[in-house]
Design a protein that fits this description.
The chain is of the alpha/beta class. Helices cover 25% and strands 29% of the residues. It has a seven-stranded mixed sheet, with helices on both faces. Strand 2, helix 4 (73-80) and strand 3 form a beta-alpha-beta unit. The termini are far apart. The chain binds S-adenosylmethionine (SAM). S-adenosylmethionine binds at residues 8, 22, 49-51, 53, 70-72, 75, 96-98, 114-116, 119.
Length: 205
């Protein structure tokens, strides 16, 4: 069977960015949540699976320091073109987010995940993912998620996925308190509605 890494590399090598089913140019829904975080412009932000998201360019307009991870080296190669002269603010990681993160990635301010967690379908992988969240984000930090909701699609990018509501996320985030959540329907480049759960949590212990 094709490895997950090859699967994602193949997608990023073969598909123009604007044709990806999660491509967006309007980041206002995400930024509405990020703007709830005081001083996020100076934060250390970990991005679980950055893909080729144009959000990088928006975040790099500030002095935030970004830890950009993805399983796919092909995605990261493309993402590099979006960093331009802000390379000094970026740390690159290329690993499965369901594996432990390097021990020097610690005490960060914000965990950011749009459309990555929902691809983890194995219980052990989900468990390790949330161990990573707890290992990396300091007390007082935040975790943001945008995942397919219970009303959402059951597959994406040729893969099965798990759907999330706010309560599912809360159960996994015992040391965090919910700041805000809402359902949001993203319309993909083919005009298809893709309902998401958006949620922001603050680490309190
Ligand atoms: C649907 S895309 C979303 C990309 C980006 N977050 C965005 O909003 O445009 C999912 C991304 O997660 C990455 N990914 C999938 N499974 C992963 C895993 N287990 N570990 C790290 N990255 C993963 C893929 O390579 C892809 O870049």
């Amino acid at each position: 069977m094709e490895s997950l890494t090859n699967h994602w590399n193949g997608i990023f090598q073969k598909t123009d960015e604007e044709k990806l089913g999660w491509y967006e140019t309007d980041f206002s829904q995400t930024l509405k949540f990020i703007d709830l975080i005081p001083d996020w412009q100076k934060a250390k932000i970990f991005v679980a699976g950055v893909g080729t998201s144009g959000l990088i360019e928006k975040l790099l307009k500030s002095t935030a320091e970004l830890y950009l991870n993805d399983l796919s080296s092909a995605a990261l190669e493309k993402a590099k073109s979006k960093v331009a002269d802000k390379e000094r603010l970026v740390h690159w990681l290329c690993q499965d987010i369901a594996q432990p993160l390097p021990s020097d990635v610690r005490e960060l301010d914000i965990w950011f995940d749009r459309a990555v967690l929902h691809f983890l379908t194995d219980d052990n992988c989900v468990e390790q993912y949330f161990k990573n969240v707890h290992a990396v984000i300091k007390v007082g930090g935040y975790a943001f998620f945008a995942e397919f909701s219970k009303a959402g699609a059951k597959r994406c990018a040729g893969l099965d996925l798990r759907q999330y509501d706010t309560a599912d996320l809360e159960k996994r985030l015992a040391s965090f308190e919910l700041v805000r959540s809402e359902e949001y329907t993203y319309i993909n480049p083919y005009g298809a509605p893709r309902p998401y759960t958006y949620a922001l949590f603050k680490r309190v212990k």
